[in-house]
User: What shape does this take?
Amino acid sequence: MLSVKDLVVNYGAINAIKGISFDVNEGEIVTLIGANGAGKTTTLHAVSRLLKPKQGEISFCGQPISSMEAHKIIQLGLTQVPEGRRVFSQLTVQQNLALGAYTRKDGADAVAADYEMVFQRLPRLKERRRQIAGTLSGGEQQMLAIGRALMCKPKMLLLDEPSMGLSPLLVQEIFSIIHDVNQSGVTILLVEQNAKMALEIANRAYVLETGSIVMSGDAHELANNDQVRKAYLGG
Ligand code: ATP
Assistant: This one.
């Protein structure tokens, strides 16, 4: 579904991504794990075209997207949930969700049905739909960011550190939401520093170290790999 080949991303003289290749098949949860600064966010931004790669070929559902504008990529069905949530803090929950549907062209009825789908999947958002997003808790803001992305009617979600800054209980809840979203037919590329949870939920994983993929494979096998356990799972 998503194929990335020989991706290189530089920030000026800094070579942040050094020619990585990976793919995500329809229906999968694939996770990209790695330490702080390994290049996980940079990779997602290059895929969603928030950043222009120096080199590389990226295709989504068979279409090259390497030089496509970001909003066109969303229309194709690829939506990013950014790190740190980035909800519109002055707007209500409902208004944030409405903005998620902004690029859709399939009519008001389809969009209305998807509000219901999002509220069913994330009931806390329904309770708080008139609340100003900036006053939500961190976990609720993460739910809103996922809900807003679902309003784009994505085929695939790019999730950037959804567990960041959340209490262990909320981390569980967010991962369970990610699992449900995937079960409903949305393919997921998940970037996480919480390698333990990410490997539990994912089908496959890639390990990123200073801009290069150093290991890849079945997520459960990697979770039991000595090197991965020592470096990312606290032994
Ligand atoms: P984190 O979990 O901390 O977000 P990450 O794995 O997502 O880490 P990136 O944020 O992608 O890593 O950063 C990869 C490398 O690129 C790091 O060395 C970082 O310092 C560098 N970098 C990231 N953004 C910029 C920028 N805007 N300008 C210069 N260098 C940057």
Remarks:
- The pocket of adenosine-5'-triphosphate is lined by residues 11, 14, 16, 34, 36-42, 193 (CB under 6 Å).
- The two ends are 34 Å apart (CA to CA).
